Amino acid sequence: MRIAIYGSGGVGGYFGGRLAQLGKEVVFIARNENLAALRSRGLKVGSIAGDFILDKVKASGNPAEVGVVDYVLCGVKTWQVSGAARAMLPMVGPETLVIPLQNGIEAPDQLMTALNPANVLGGLCAIVAFLEAPGHIKHTGGNPLIRFGHLDNRPDARVNELAEAFNHCSGVKASIPDDIRVAMWQKFMLITPWSGLGSVSRAPIGVLLEQPETRALLTEGIDEIYRVGRARGVGLPEDSVARTLETLDSITPNSTTSMQRDLIRGRPSELDAQCGAVVRLGLEAGVDTPVNRFFLYSLRSLELRARGHLKFNRRSTPRQ
């Protein structure tokens, strides 16, 4: 079993690290300082599920020198997926399975712009992890979960084999959903309103849930995504909104999302793939999404500034 991790930040680094810790043949695709650190010092993971250090790991900045692998875990940011699909082509053979782990709902379609659809699975993960420093992953929240499967939900021994490998890892739980599209939309319902409202308010999830007004906004944002998914033929259960709120209530109260952290720090974020996707897909399906549209339009100026398309000061001093 040869596994490539395309994008070796918090998500890819953690899940790839756990597989390498198990003894699987894993190669990390990275760049710049992170690549240099992986090659020279290995991988360090600080985790609430147990710290570990891999003194030596395989790392490359060139997929062509890696060659064809059995699996590719795609852990790049959402706006990098299309470029990653083209770049990973030398690693993708007829039997290779590519698993996207992005927030949002559109990554499989983006991968298919460059790859054979037969190679592309649906996938998702749940973890609060980030790149603390080059070669150093920090896992601070969530019980690491990874789910994947063919988009038509057909059985495949190769899918089962990867799930089994993950379930032998320390600090990971893997499963193959009955319907991967439903599972992806359920994650979409959870992460997107939380990211949008958290970015607007700069508050952690516990505060958002505790205040009646922000809890109501979260609920409305979740319901919009539920109605968009149903309008697009996704078989979301009728209690999906309530179950999403239950899951949010179980999350560590001081938790924030990666989109929220990126926007606060002035970095490019996944705003378009989350709130933007809700608005786009809602328009296509004829479903109005005013709460998610508010998040999108309120945060767009910060996103444009982070990408260098708009300039203004972070703090403005009122004139007397």
Main sheet: strand order? 5-2-1-6-7
**What helical percentage do the residues reach?**
40-55%
What is the succession of H and E elements?
EHEHEEEHEHEHEEHEHHHHHHH
Our measurement of the CA-to-CA distance between the termini, rounded to an integer number of angstroms, reads 67 Å
What can be said about the biggest beta sheet?
5 strands, parallel
Q: How many β-strands, per DSSP?
A: 10
How many structural domains can be distinguished in the coordinates? 2
Indicate the radius of gyration in whole angstroms: 19 Å
Shape: globular
Approximately how much beta-strand content do the residues carry?
15-25%
Indicate the CATH architecture of the largest domain. Answer: 3-Layer(aba) Sandwich
Average of pLDDT: 95
Number of helices: 13
Q: What is the fold named in CATH at topology level of the largest domain?
A: Rossmann fold
Unreliable segments (pLDDT under 50, ≥5 consecutive)?
none
CATH superfamily of the largest domain: NAD(P)-binding Rossmann-like Domain
Descriptive account of the structure:
The chain is of the alpha/beta class and 320 residues long. The protein folds into 2 domains: 2-178, 3-Layer(aba) Sandwich (Rossmann fold); 182-306, N-(1-d-carboxylethyl)-l-norvaline Dehydrogenase, domain 2, CATH 1.10.1040.10. The chain has 13 helices and 10 strands. It has helices spanning 10-22, 32-41, 63-66, 81-87, 107-111, 157-167, 180-201, 205-210, 212-231, 240-249, 258-264, 272-285, 290-306; strands at 2-6, 25-29, 43-47, 52-54, 58-60, 69-74, 92-100, 122-133, 136-149, 173-175. The termini are far apart. The model has no long low-confidence stretch (mean pLDDT 95).
